Records
---
Amino acid sequence: MVELLQRHERQGRQARQERRPAWHGPLTACAAAMGVLAAVSAIGLVVDERTVMGEGVWLKPFKFAASFGLYAITLAWMIGNVRRWRRTLWWLGTVTVAGFVLPEISAITFQAVRGVRSHFNFATALDETVFMVMGGAAYLGWLLTLVLGVFLVLQRRVDRAMAWAIPLGIVVSLAGMSVGYLMTAPTPEQAQALAGGMELATIGAHTVGASDGGGGMPVTGWSTGAGDLRVAHFVGLHALQVLPLIAAVLRRFVAVARTRTLLVIVAAFGYAGVTGLLLWQAQRGQAVVHPDGTTLLAAGGLVAAVSLAAAIVVAVSGRR
């Protein structure tokens, strides 16, 4: 009898341990390291007066450390909550740290220490090599995020809203990451110069309608005088955090599971619409802080469509 009770107790303890989330160690450590780098970069912005393209040399490491920190801790949480393919996801998360985050942030920080531009820099052989390393890491990061997303989608989840929030967040995030590739293409002026046989120190740009390095918003540095592809890149990229957060908030305030799920889907389409709108605005050479009438009309239509869809979901749910 005692032996039977002890066996049941061991089985219960094992079941509780299996249910307890075990956050992915390397990604969690990576997020902590990004927090440290962000703090160091913030100090650098205060004590180091050097600038690159009109911005403090430590602004880019600060922004990327904060962004990578959010990315890493979100994936660490997602992987920690899986029940299937744990070992495969653990290795994929580890490769993401070693093959994507660390090479990318190391290259950015290395160039900041040197006091030169990290992105689109072909001034010297060293600068070109550093940028190629960053590009390779970015491609690998996109692919790894896609593969991680596939394995995360195939998990069994009781919470249907979260089961939709994670894949939709990954899809929009991948789209946001893809905006970065638009920045690496030569501008029309650069393409013409390259066609003429000129060697350029800079190939690619994030500003549309002006040169990189003009007036920018505080902290983000986004252009205030022309289109800036980084806005859509940033917003789309962080769907990975925003949509699961929306699902978690809805779980607290909305009792009906079907309603939560439909609201998450509506939110995902709305978020994707905002990302697309910001990309369209930037590609027309228009600063995010100076939208024209066409942009405002499109934004108003998007808000109205999302609000109407959410209202219909709530109304239909209330009648059941």
---
Amino acid sequence: MSSGETPRHKLPPGSDEPLDGQPFPDSLDPEDEGGDSMLVIPELSAMFPGVTPFLPRFLPQVPPTFMGLTQGFCNLHDFLRHLHDLGWYGYLHAQLADQAAYVLVYEGRTVAAATITSTGEQALGELLHLYEQGAPLNAYALPSHLAHILSGVGSRAWKFNLTEDFTGLHARPRGAIFYSRGEIVATMPCGMSYEGAFPAPLRPQTLILPRSLAGWAHHQYSLTLRGRDALNAITTVHQSFRSQHGGVGLSFLRAIADRQTPAEYAMRSDVALHDLEPMLQEFLRTGVVKEQAG
């Protein structure tokens, strides 16, 4: 914890922790650690209070980092590539009339998404569709630990079980608690009609656009004779391929040889899908791989 962060406390499940930013009772102060009786837990305000989907319901109110981006000004895939290069943490919001999409970004990777009707990859596709239809896009930066906590918020809540290393969101009718490694880092006066938890994954997994929007990524490809030579270290084709595509290209080519689709490779290796598309197109153009029929 940095010197500028608000101190955090552990609490047992079901405790009456305050949600109004007031000091905890003396009985909960870590006096044996020299604690201050006026230590408080920060309370976050909801950016989208009253919305139905779980993910946007718990997104905290923060100033926009990018605001009003449009398709005519910035290609969404290029913008996502920029966020990936930055290793950015935060969330995206696009709205057109009564349609809205929300996407959480962790380490520059899209890891959670929601609309009124869908979550996950389908909701990510709806964000792209709204943006292409003219919806302005806003991006809001978050601290990395909050982005991690929110990465577990999906379409279903689980029974809450506070463990020493629990990271995730605990939601109740009277508010939500943000936990990181068993410690409370923030609260929010926004909850659900029932009690439930959204555990965060140890490492959030990258969302891939659905087949209808990124069919190429779900297709099967195979190596040509030239492609097999590119993996053979004693050939001149290998030397040429390595100098052009480097270790990343060789790793991708080996995955194709192992019958992985680009989408499967992207998920297993944490490589951004939009970085694989131009590489795959070059593999096809130069006759290193070919698309399998059917």
